[in-house]
Amino acid sequence: MPKKLPQADMPAADYAFYGLVWAGTVMTERVDRALVRAHDLPVSWFEVMLWLASSPEPVPASVLGNSTMLSRSQVSRVVDALQARGLVTRTPSARDARSVEVSLTAEGRRVFERADATRREVLAPVFTDLLDEQDIEALGTVWRKLKAEKEKLGQEPTARATRPPR
Predict the structure, then answer these.
(1) Angstrom distance (rounded) from CA 43 to CA 146
(2) Tens-digit pLDDT profile for residues 54-77
(3) CA gap 140, 134 in Å, rounded
(4) Which of 166, 142, 123 is nearest to 17 (CA)?
(5) Which of 14, 25, 47, 52 has its CA 20 to 30 A from that of 83?
(6) In whole angstroms, what is the distance from residue 57 CA to residue 121 CA?
(7) 51-88 burial, b if ≥16 CB within 10 A, otherwise e?
(8) pLDDT score, position 163
(9) pLDDT higher for 151 or 67?
(10) Conformational region of residue 163, where left means phi above 0, alpha means psi within -120 to 50, and beta covers everything else
(11) Which residues contact 38 (CB under 8 A, 6 or more apart)?
């Protein structure tokens, strides 16, 4: 008789949670390797560029900190690095003199478009080619629900939250 897989005995919520963690980790590592190799662009830089490319107007730096999976200090370092490469610009906000807005430069848009094509190509065999439209919509629904709850609570995930108490 075949041996039962351990996850068969795992509660459904635990199995789903670890499945999300596993999938996110595997796909992020896969995309990161491809983006660094092809474009010298870490996935964290790409994530910031993705949010900027998705916005028709410059994005306040604080919004990037709230939108990405990066901390505000990480966003600041990424924006510094992208600016040093000529991929983004920072401009004083017209709405709030205390803040700056970030936007892609023309070169940043070109680099983003090439990197996005690489990301899509790398993910296709392990994501978009495997999942149908309903699967992708369901994942989007799950993500929106989880993100909305995080925003409602006003909490940033931290490394300490994933460690067991001492």
Answers:
(1) 22
(2) 999 999 888 888 888 888 889 999
(3) 10
(4) 142
(5) 25
(6) 27
(7) ebbebeebbbbbbbbebbebeeebbeebbebbeeeebb
(8) 44
(9) 67
(10) beta
(11) 114, 115, 118
| Residue type at 22 in one-letter notation | W
Q: Would you say the C-alpha torsion 83, 103, 75, 48 has a positive or negative sign?
A: negative
| Token duo for residue 117 | 């094509």
Which residue type, as a one-letter code, is found at position 24? Answer: G
- Two tokens at 91? 């401009």
Question: Is residue 117 classed as helix, strand or coil in its secondary structure?
Answer: helix
Please state the pTM of the whole predicted model. 0.79
Q: Domains of the chain: which residue ranges? A: 15-140
Q: Is 91 helix (H, G, I), strand (E, B) or coil?
A: strand
* Residue whose tokens read 């990066």: 70
How many residues are given for the chain? 166
The CATH number of domain 15-140 is 1.10.10.10: yes
